[in-house]
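Many introductory courses stop at the sequence. We go one step further.
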Amino acid sequence: MNATAGNLETLEASLMADIAAASDEAAIEAARVSALGK
């Protein structure tokens, strides 16, 4: 695995953890904005 693939896997794991920890729609939206921007 190259460095880019490792970085993508790390990013994916972090985003999935943020989504899983979200307790409401606003928290999910905040995770989306953090990852993708407005």
